[in-house]
């Protein structure tokens, strides 16, 4: 893309999906490109410009094109010609769709807008796409490659075999053994796990429906006896360090508008980040990982626990906080279930219609949930995967080890299972999602250096095979629901990670009187 046009796009805070990126990249006339994008933002009210927005405003775009003569001599039909060679090249360069770029970072997201009425075949295609992607990850593991065979090609004679399959059924037999039904694109098979092999039984027992794993064992087309299991798993082999002495801070679950919102505690943080404190001045990036406002109508009777009863008021309060962040700090913000977006994942960016004040903040970049942000220094990329974390509860409820340890008090242990499975929410039915037949956007295709979440309102830190897991604190005192279920939040804490030293510090800005006051 023309560098001047690229700079204009970033200054406007616009996000382009892959196909629009390809089209705009063909335009050498800066005025034409920016005029098209500005007008599409104006009529759609969106910062994220998709191809469907472009097509739905054909008349507008044609009118803009008619005002430009010479130069590119572009025609609207030409812009929309299928350019397979261009798209193939883009797919080679990026994994997923790139929606934003600056010299300091890249943002990758999945298309969040279905362009047709969903049908059963969309869900089938979604799981097929997920299988292909995770199958590739598993096939790169040396332990899996020996005797690897498709289920449909397993013969009638007993032999040693390895297979990669998706869990479609899991049950305990009358002898207390585990019987796992697995399927791939060629067929299905039952896998028996003996209860007397405690270590192996434990590994299989944590399987969730729709997990994709590799299994080694012996058997024939009728039955396989398990000897070992391999999850896709994630590994960081090189710990990235930047030369510049800069840091990243993480916040989540501000819940602006709640009557339990901790405004004094958050004010402490804002005063600190504007201070002359040496560590505060090193912060270059801020990540806000969802539930930025408390929302309206999120649960029955919510109006009784709201201080601000409209989305407009809540986002106005949020914007007032964000406007106090120093302008040299880039902020990334994804939505959560309480924000003004649909619940189904991947969640789109927060809409200008509901949060116009956010669009006036120049150093705020709104992104989808989830999003992968790559921070760049020369040839180095530091990858941060941000995901609000709605699926954390499902992991804790379904995995015995997590249930017994009451992992809501140590949620990073649940997030480990996302990395282990290379998927943010594997089980169909445990959360609401929009299927995508091209690529399951919740697959962790690239192992991140940091995986940050929110949702559980407790700060927790873990290191899993080189990836740092950060589950965010909150800025809301204990709610009636949390009190009812025994969940004790850990508010007002901000983890700060230094990109040069890789040191992680925790700062506590909580005001005890505010956190513990009676409501």
Structure description:
Helix content is 29%, strand content 23%. The longest helix has 20 residues, at 120-139. Strands 3-4-14-15-16-18-17 form a 7-stranded mixed sheet. A 6-stranded mixed sheet has the order 13-12-11-10-19-20. The chain has 18 helices and 20 strands. By secondary structure, the chain is an alpha/beta fold. The chain has 3 domains: 3-93; 141-230, Nucleic acid-binding proteins (OB fold (Dihydrolipoamide Acetyltransferase, E2P)); 247-516, 4-Layer Sandwich (Purple Acid Phosphatase, chain A, domain 2), CATH 3.60.21.50. The radius of gyration is 24 Å and the shape is globular.
Summarize the structure.
Helix content is 29%, strand content 23%. It is α/β, with parallel strands linked by helices and 519 residues long.
| Mean pLDDT reading | 86
- The helix content, as a percent range, equals 25-40%
Low-pLDDT runs: 69-99
What's the arrangement of strands in the largest beta sheet?
3-4-14-15-16-18-17
* Gyration radius from CA atoms, angstroms: 24 Å
Query: How many domains is the backbone divided into?
Result: 3
- Overall SS class: alpha/beta
């Amino acid at each position: 893309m023309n560098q001047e046009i690229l700079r204009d796009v970033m200054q406007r805070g616009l996000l382009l999906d892959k196909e629009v990126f390809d089209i705009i990249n063909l335009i050498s006339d800066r005025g034409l490109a920016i005029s098209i994008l500005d007008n599409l933002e104006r009529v759609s009210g969106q910062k994220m410009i998709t191809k469907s927005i472009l097509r739905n405003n054909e008349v507008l775009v044609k009118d803009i094109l008619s005002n430009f003569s010479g130069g590119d001599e572009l025609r609207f039909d030409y812009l929309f010609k299928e350019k397979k060679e261009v798209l193939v090249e883009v797919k080679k360069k990026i994994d997923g769709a790139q929606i934003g770029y600056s010299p300091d970072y890249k943002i990758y997201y999945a298309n969040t807008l279905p362009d047709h009425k969903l049908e059963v075949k969309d869900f089938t295609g979604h799981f097929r796409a997920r299988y292909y992607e995770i199958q590739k990850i598993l096939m790169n593991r040396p332990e899996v490659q020996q005797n690897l065979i498709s289920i449909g090609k397993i013969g009638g004679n007993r032999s040693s075999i390895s297979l990669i399959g998706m869990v479609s059924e899991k049950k305990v037999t009358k002898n207390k053994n585990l019987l796992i039904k697995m399927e791939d694109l060629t067929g299905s098979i039952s896998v028996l796990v003996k209860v007397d092999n405690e270590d192996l039984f434990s590994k299989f027992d944590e399987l969730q429906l729709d997990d994709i794993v590799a299994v080694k064992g012996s058997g024939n087309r009728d039955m396989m006896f398990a000897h070992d299991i391999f999850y896709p798993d994630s590994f960081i082999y090189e710990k990235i360090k930047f030369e510049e002495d800069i840091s990243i801070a993480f916040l989540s679950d501000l819940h602006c508008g709640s009557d339990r919102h901790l405004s004094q505690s958050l004010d402490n943080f804002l005063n600190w980040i504007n201070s002359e404190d040496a560590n505060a001045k090193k912060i270059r990036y801020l990540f806000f990982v969802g539930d930025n406002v408390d929302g309206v109508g999120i649960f029955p009777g919510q109006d009784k626990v709201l201080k601000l009863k409209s989305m407009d008021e809540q986002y106005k309060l949020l914007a007032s906080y964000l406007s106090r962040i120093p302008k040299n700090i880039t902020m990334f913000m994804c939505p959560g279930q309480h924000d003004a977006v649909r619940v189904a994942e991947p969640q789109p960016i927060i809409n200008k219609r509901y949060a116009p004040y956010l669009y006036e903040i120049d150093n705020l970049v709104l992104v989808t949930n989830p999003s992968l942000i790559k921070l760049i220094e020369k040839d180095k990329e530091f990858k941060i995967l941000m995901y609000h974390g709605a699926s954390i509860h499902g992991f804790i409820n379904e995995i015995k080890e997590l249930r017994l340890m009451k992992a809501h008090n140590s949620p990073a242990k649940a997030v480990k299972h996302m990395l282990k499975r290379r998927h943010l929410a594997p089980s169909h039915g445990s959360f609401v999602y929009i299927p995508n037949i091209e690529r399951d956007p919740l697959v962790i295709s690239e192992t991140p250096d940091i995986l940050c979440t929110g949702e559980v309102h407790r700060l927790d830190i873990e290191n899993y095979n080189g990836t740092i897991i950060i589950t965010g604190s909150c800025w809301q005192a204990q709610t009636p629901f949390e009190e009812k279920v025994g969940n004790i939040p850990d508010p007002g804490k901000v983890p700060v990670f230094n990109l040069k030293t890789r040191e992680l510090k925790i700062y506590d800005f909580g005001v005890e009187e505010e956190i513990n006051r009676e409501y």
